[in-house]
Amino acid sequence: MRKSHGLVPDLRSWNRLMLEFNASGLVDQVWEVYCELLSCGVLPNVFTYNVLLHSLCKVGKLELGLELLRSVDCADSVSYNTLIWGLCRFGNVGDGFGLVSEMVKRCVDLEAFTCNILVKGYCDAGAVWYAEWVMENLASGGVRKDVVGFNTLISWYCRDGEIDRALELAGRMRMEEGIDPDIFTHNSLVHGYCAIGDFVNAKNVIRDAFVSLGSSRNGVGRLEERTESREIGYGMKPNVITYTTLIGAYCRKRGLDEGFALYEEMVLDGLMPDTVTYNSIINGLCKSGRLAEAEVLMREMKELGVDPNHVTYTTIIDSKFKTENAAEAGGLQGQMVVRGLEFDVVVCTALMDGLFKTGHPSQAEKMFCALPRLGLAPNRFTYAALIDGRCKQSDLSGAEAALKEMEDQNIDPNVVVYSSLINGYSKNGRLDEALDVMRKMISRKVFPNPFIYATLIDCFFKAGKRELALSLYKEMKLDGLDDDIYVLDAFLNEFKRHGQMDEASRLVEQASSKGLVPDHVNYTSLMDGYFRHRMDSAAKNVAQEMKDKDMKFDVVSYAVLMKGLLMGGKHEAASVYNGARDLGLAPHPDIYNTVIEAYCKEGKSEDALGVWYEMKQRGMVPNSTTCNILVGGLCEAGELQKAMDLLSEMSAFGIHPTPATHRVILHACLKYKKSELILKMHDQLARMGLELSTVVYNTLIGALCKLGMTRIAVEAFEDMKGRGFSADVATYNALINGYCKSSHLHKAVETYSKMLAGGYSPNILTFNALIGAHIRAGSVEDAVRLLDQVKERGLALSAATYDILISGLGKVGNRKDAMKLYCEMIISGFVPKTGTYNVLIGNFCKVGKMRQASELMNEMKVRGAEPSGWTYDLLVGGWCDLSNQPGCDRSVRSSCKSEAKRFFHEMEKKGLTPSEGTKSRLRFTFSKHVR
Length: 931
Fold this sequence. Notes:
51 helices
């Protein structure tokens, strides 16, 4: 149109237009204007080319920029510096340095600016030493050094912890180059010292650098005693960054009083703290549990006209969640929305993590699903929170799905992600799968730390698989990992379980002698062990030792001490509660929770309720943990209505039933064997605020299936799908178990087929149910075929799988294959159940192989499986039958009778009553009445 009217703007107008588009980020329009300029016959100048070059470098079109630079004759130092900046920005710093020789050839002036761009480029690439070499190399060619280049190097050396090298450069810049350090130089050094926790030298930097210019208060003299000679300093005053750096470092190191003192001094020096300053102090307060003070400070910053940002709110919200105050955390989230603050991925991750930890999994899942709508992509930390949350909800299939999604998006899982999965599988008793996750992470070059080994070792110990636990410990040592307090605690707990308190005490002493300092958790475990085994005097000695070593009692330590003293019956509850104050502890919900749990375990539900009422009288709001412990205790005692009344009362405090509460209540309902009661309680809990989820429905379906109410379970399954909740492997496993339990094998197989068709991968629990059902139905061949499928899918057999197969094969008389599987089971580190041993022993007894049967019982004892009355019945009866065999000579008969008598007396000592059949055999064999 301009051409048709004969109007062509001058070059200055074109350049101004290109500059404005470039400054606004409209890079494509810069190129279009340039093309229009050429089509109008206007000749560009060096300014035109430099703007165009800058726009190309901003979006990484470096090849096009290089081509443009070399095609024009008027390129100047700005042109080259722009392209060098672009190359450095996108990681091609070597190519940028290569352009220096081209500048020399074209007689383009090399400036300090050129040098500084390259120095920053190499520093950003992690080659600080090479950046320094570049600066020296260019300086030898006549390029002047300046404070910017030195500051860049000093800053990066400080970031890398090379503070001595940074100090050396700071000294050189003034003494050798005649360049005075500026405020940025000294702030970098302060930051470097603070990063390594050297506050003395950080203050020394401030003392030497900053001298008050006429201030009657002597400037920052309160930071450190000032030098008397004013000539030593550089005549500068600290700025906001100086104070904020030091305040932030003190707050991170828990030196909050020092941080506050610096904050007050900063204000007195006439400097207005900014958002970063306030955030540093608020973060320190929150980490130290001083949330109320953090909230006061946030209100104060608003009054001073400093707006809290999304980091401020995230810090407070995270602390609210940690104190289980989800309602107030939600209120702060609403304030963020009203104030128009951005929800970045850090904010969303904190909200997700908090919602999971306070029992609001569905809201946490909604937050995760909202990320794409907010234009955000989940990062490694987001997935870590999601996976950890799902694992804590026992939604392990969901956690695995999140891991797969993470890997599909090329986000590498870190040790935290794998640790959550391992912990999730371990806590749910699925140790084989936990071990598989560890092997998987190792194959991906993510190596387990002592905490992961400690988790597995502890869980294998708890499962009675001591040999596997010890082999994992050996593996950890072979990997070059040292023992830590978590590994020490795993072994202490194992000794504690078996009453081996002398070994536990020696272990603590050995750890100390090897330089591993046991912490209050390890001492608490030791004290708990002594109390459990009624060694009260030794337990009190441990408590005294903790006090002597100035080892602070936390609420768990005190709770163990309190429980031990109360359970001994030698102390009144009131005196024990008051003892908390003597140790500097105010009554805490965790202390009360421990006592409530102890009473519940002893079946003293009324005493537990008494502690609950005392909590309320002291003005302490019970938390969800208190509720779940007490509800569990009441349900165990058969007080289902009291448990529901308690839940109703808790709703008034804003504490709603969790999936764990739901599981406890429904488990209690199973005793009454009424599906209508299960459904009624499920509905009541939902009305009390229980968030429905796949996990909750799985509990409901599982409970109904345990009663054989599969038709009602299917209705619950349909209701679950109708509400938008997806089934998972646990859902199908519950239904398959239900059909197997009610002998509807064809329906179990049909459900299994639907499961496969829906894309769900069965786990070992699925196969255990189906194999057991086929064996009970006499379809041993089908059971073996299922076993082949287990191996084809690469699933590891569990202890339950072996027990089912061995018992099944034994019951149909297939002794050879049963013993083969038994040996395989032992090699795999599993200990068969007593019932499994009984089947094997019974098979030997049937064919008169009593020596083998007796050896199997001895092996059974060695492996920690306790013989039952039926075990002794089999052995006593078997030896009696063998002694009564026709043609049995006198010596053999006498030996058999002796063995029968030995096992009978052993049975009596254990308080086990022989069956009538066993008594009859003994009477016949010994021809006398046996009681």
